[in-house]
Design a protein that fits this description.
Shape: globular
Largest sheet: 8 strands, mixed
Strand content: 5-15%
Number of helices: 13
Distance between the termini: 89 Å
C-alpha cells in the first residue's frame, strides 16, 4: 500500500508541477500580449519628472532630512497669485515628480511646495519605528513651518499624501479655518485616498479571499523584508511583469506607454525595505473622525471610478464625513488620476484655488 501511495503522490506532484508550468506559460503569454499593447498606444513626449527648483532641506523632529523644492511666483507675471501657497504631498512609493502636470500648470503662477516624504525619493531614510502615517503628519507640519511660515496654504494630497493630511488634521484641527480666524490651511484637495479601512494585502495576494490574504500578506511582507536586497534584484529582473502590473493597478483607461514607464520607474526606485516599513501603518489607519475639521474650508475630493488601490468607495466615505466637500468622480480613471486625468484634476484645483482665495478675500 505504501508503494501505491507513494506512486499516487508522485503522479499528483507531477500533475501539479505540470499545471504550474502550464499556468506560468499562460501567464507569460498574457504579459507579452499586454506589454505589446502598451507599446502600441499613442505617444506622449511630455518630459515627465524634469521640473526642478533649488532644493531646501527640512529636518524632521527625529532628524530625517526631507528634500523640499519651492516654485516661487514669477514677478513678471501680473496674473500670478502670491497670497497663497499650494503644498503637494505625494503617495506611497512615489516622489514629488509624480506631480509633473500640476507643477507645470502652476509654475510661476502660484507659489508651490513639493517634497519627498521620508524614505522616498531624495529624502533621508526614516528612523526605526517611525515609518507611520502619524509621523508623516508631523513631517508636514515641519515643512510648513520651514518654508511657509506665513500666509494661507492649500494642501493637496494623493494616496498616502491624503492620509498624511488626515493625520495632520487629527493633531492640528484648529489650523483648518479661514485665514482671518487664525487658520493656516484655507483649502484641501484629497486625491485617490482614504482615512481608513484600507486592505493593502489585496495588492500582494489578490487571488486569495480577504479573510485569508491579510495575515498571509503581513507575514509575507515581514519575511521578504528581511531579504529585501534579494527582493529588489528580482523586481528588477521582472521588468515586463512589473510594467504590466503598473498598467493594470495604477491606471484605468489606456494611457501612453511613457506614463506607465514613468510610474513604474518611481515604484522600482523605492527599496522593498521601505515598502515593508510603511505597510503595517495602512492597515491600522483610522482617521475618519478627524477629517471633519476640513469642513471649515473648501475641500475637494477626487478619485477615479476604476481605482483598484483606493476604490471610489473610500472617496465617497470621505465626502460623507467632510461637511460641504465637493466629490469629483473621474469616470474610468485609475489610481494615478493625477497623470491619467491631469486636465480634469488641474481644472478642479483651479476651482478650489478660486474658492479658497475668494473666501479669504471676502472675509
Amino acid at each position: 500500500m505504501s508503494s501505491i501511495a507513494a506512486r499516487i503522490g508522485q503522479i499528483a506532484a507531477g500533475t501539479l508541477g505540470a499545471a504550474a508550468v502550464a499556468a506560468a506559460a499562460r501567464g507569460a503569454v498574457v504579459v507579452r500580449k499586454r506589454r505589446r499593447a502598451i507599446e502600441e498606444r499613442p505617444e506622449d513626449r511630455t518630459p515627465l519628472g524634469t521640473l526642478r527648483s533649488c532644493p531646501v532641506t527640512v529636518v524632521t523632529a527625529d532628524g530625517v532630512p526631507l528634500h523640499v523644492e519651492v516654485d516661487e511666483v514669477d514677478p513678471a507675471h501680473n496674473g500670478g497669485s502670491s497670497e497663497v501657497t499650494l503644498v503637494f504631498v505625494h503617495g506611497y512609493c512615489l516622489n514629488l515628480d509624480c506631480w509633473h502636470f500640476q507643477r507645470a500648470a502652476y509654475r510661476g503662477l502660484v507659489r508651490s511646495v513639493f517634497y519627498d516624504q521620508r524614505s522616498h525619493g531624495r529624502s533621508g531614510r526614516s528612523s526605526l519605528g517611525n515609518a507611520t502615517i502619524e509621523q508623516l503628519g508631523d513631517d508636514l507640519l515641519r515643512v510648513l513651518d520651514a518654508v511657509v511660515p506665513e500666509g494661507p496654504v492649500i494642501l493637496v494630497g494623493h494616496s498616502m499624501g491624503g492620509m498624511t493630511i488626515a493625520a495632520f488634521a487629527e493633531d492640528h484641527p484648529e489650523l483648518f479655518a479661514p485665514y482671518d480666524e487664525g487658520g493656516r490651511v484655507i483649502g484641501v484637495a484629497l486625491i485617490s485616498t482614504t482615512a481608513g479601512g484600507l486592505d493593502p494585502s489585496r495588492l500582494l495576494i489578490p487571488v486569495l479571499p480577504a479573510k485569508l490574504s491579510g495575515g498571509i500578506a503581513n507575514g509575507t511582507i515581514r519575511t521578504l523584508a528581511k531579504g529585501h536586497g534579494i527582493v529588489d534584484r528580482f523586481r528588477a529582473m521582472g521588468a515586463s511583469v512589473a510594467t504590466v502590473f503598473t498598467d493594470v493597478f495604477a491606471f484605468g483607461d489606456e494611457v501612453p506607454e511613457a506614463y506607465v514607464e514613468f510610474v513604474d520607474g518611481l515604484l522600482s526606485q523605492t527599496p522593498f525595505e521601505v515598502v515593508a516599513e510603511f505597510f503595517p501603518s495602512f492597515r491600522s489607519l483610522d482617521k475618519f473622525s478627524s477629517v471633519a475639521a476640513m469642513g471649515r474650508v473648501p475641500t475637494t475630493i477626487i478619485c477615479g471610478t476604476a481605482d483598484r488601490l483606493t476604490a471610489i468607495g473610500h472617496s465617497r466615505k470621505l465626502h460623507s464625513y467632510i461637511p460641504g466637500s465637493r466629490l469629483v468622480e473621474c469616470e474610468k480613471a485609475g489610481h494615478m488620476v493625477i497623470l491619467e486625468r491631469h486636465g480634469q484634476v488641474n481644472a478642479e484645483l483651479d476651482q478650489l484655488l478660486a474658492a479658497a482665495t475668494r473666501d479669504a478675500a471676502s472675509a
